[in-house]
Amino acid sequence: MADSIAAAAQKHPAPEGLIYQYGTAGFRTKAEVLDSVMTRCGLIAALRSRALKGKWIGVMITASHNPPEDNGVKLVEPLGNMLQEEWEVLSTEMANKATPEDVSKFYHEIAARFKIDLDAPARVVVARDTRASGARLLACVLDGLKGAGAEHKDYGFLTTPQLHYMVRCLNTEGTKDSYGTPTEDGYYEKFAAAFKTALKGKKPSGSLTVDCANGVGGPKLTELIKHLPPKEEALEIFVVNDNVIKPEALNVDCGADYVKTNQRAPPSSKVGPNDRCCSLDGDADRVVFYFKDANNMFHLLDGDRIATLVASFLGDLVRQSGLSDSIKIGVVQTAYANGAATNYVEQHLKLKVDCTPTGVKYLHHAAEKLDIGVYFEANGHGTAIFSVDTLETIAKHEPKSTAQKEALEVLRACIDLINQAVGDALSDFMLVEVVLAHKSWGPQEWLSTYNDLPNRLLKVIVNDRKIFQTTDAERRLVKPDGIQTKIDQEVQKVRQGRSFARASGTEDAVRVYAEAATKAEADDLARKVAEIVKSFGSA
Ligand code: G16
Fold first, then answer.
1. Where's the Alpha-D-phosphohexomutase C-terminal domain (predicted)?
2. 379 Cβ inside 6 Å of ligand 1
């Protein structure tokens, strides 16, 4: 019998001299060099499904916040989690095999190593964002799936969190843990209904303008709105930057990454003072809020702010429901979290903070160890997850008063509103609106909970970013030798200074973060650390 694995790999040969790596969020690089990687990811997805006795595995084709000419692929585990680390390593090895024969050999080696029955069913769900290269790369994935004899469902265009939702729904369908109906309508109905229940008749003040980064979030939000209560009863939403007909506009001068990095609204923004705005990224798995005050000053309400808002609200609900003795909340952040946010959580909310390396997979993993784990990266990626025991405690709890009953109802609705599979910009922004409506807060009240330390994020292009190796949840560099001492010397020169540098896992760059007592000091520190990185990176 002909070797269908080698044949699939043969159809999409690997370009010579390139090394691929399953990074922070899958493989991500220029779309033109990704064909072979896609086919091989199809093979890995099929193997992963077989290893899990035919459970559905997800393949999402997206490069999220990256520029339009990039693309990428992430694999999704049966409950909607990120791919297990051991399989990331296998994916990297598979992506770098030189010849079709090597690919086939490695495919069979994996099967032997994990005792995978190659006749077992393999089921894979695929979806993509709106990038121009998506259709071609999807065909490459499908060739891999066909070569491996896997069954597949193609959902066409979806946001990344919708794909995670589908995977979880398909794997829990018909069980007591059923997560929902695995259709787009099922997604909209579930989250829209939870939004309505969680609001409990409270109407958010004003409107919300949602910048969709000209990505897949635009059309999907438009669909979601059709399922939400009418604007007279709930929230008025204005959808902007939703042009997916022009793929070259994706993430350009708009979107969550633009707003967070530049600390300014998209230049096209036309909102008035104190109008709430939020920006999604290209695949709608992150969101940041912002507004301009009466003096036309821009204020960012980023992932740290969402985490503190959500943690304090869930804490209130747990207390008001009479559950504070049995449920503890914790917050998970990364080194990018503003020092003031960490302080606020520890000192004011009196909650435990864990710090992990960048990457949703790390935060999610740390949050899983908590009863309620609220995790957000400053860039707006995140969600809150509830342990199985906590869900059971909340489901079984008998309220002892009307006040407890009402709080419990909102808490239960929030559980449905929060996408438990992965951080989801659409679900997250609705959660924020619910909290603001319950607190009768506008953006100004939200902002006034604490004062961010001025900060600056820079990108430095170097010859080889892999030489920058970190420790202590990416807060310190261990390589190149001597670089951390130089950074420390600069940090000590400014008041409330903190800075770190780390290689990006999604772009060919080193990221530098700095914060300090004043904007000038933060900018200066970031610039100095960037210079240090540059000098070591060009050596
Ligand atoms: C991905 C990851 C995030 C991470 C971001 C930037 O986001 O899912 O966890 O914060 O990349 O990572 P890095 O600094 O390593 O480039 P996205 O929205 O691009 O998928």
1. 457-531
2. yes
Q: Has 340 been labeled as part of a binding site?
A: no
Q: Is residue 38 part of a domain?
A: yes
Last residue of a domain, one of 273, 301, 329: 301
Q: How many angstroms does the Cα of residue 328 sit away from the middle of ligand 1?
A: 28
* Mean pLDDT along residues 328-357: 97
Which atom number of ligand 1 is nearest to the Cα of residue 360? 9
One domain for residues 443 and 459: no
- CATH number of the domain residue 350 falls in: 3.40.120.10
Alpha helices for 159-241 (secondary structure H): 160-172, 184-199, 217-227
Q: Is 473 annotated among the ligand-binding residues?
A: no
Range(s) of the domain holding residue 307: 303-447
- When pLDDT is cut at 50, 70 and 90, the band that residue 539 belongs to is low
Answer yes or no: is the C-beta of 67 below 6 A from any ligand 1 atom.
no
Question: How many domains are there within the chain?
Answer: 4
CB atoms within 10 A of CB 402: 8
Q: At what angle do helices 35-51 and 4-11 cross, to 10 degrees?
A: 150
Which candidate in 36, 64, 133, 499 is catalytic? 64
**Where a domain ends, among 106, 138, 157?**
157
**Residue 462 and residue 443 share a domain:** no
For the chain, counts of helices (H) and of strands (E): 18, 19
403-422 mean pLDDT: 95
Q: Are 269 and 353 in the same domain?
A: no
The dihedral over CA atoms of 458, 461, 465, 469, expressed in degrees to the nearest 10, equals -30
* Ligand 1 proximity of 166 Cβ (cutoff 6 Å): no
Flag whether pLDDT at 478 surpasses 50: yes
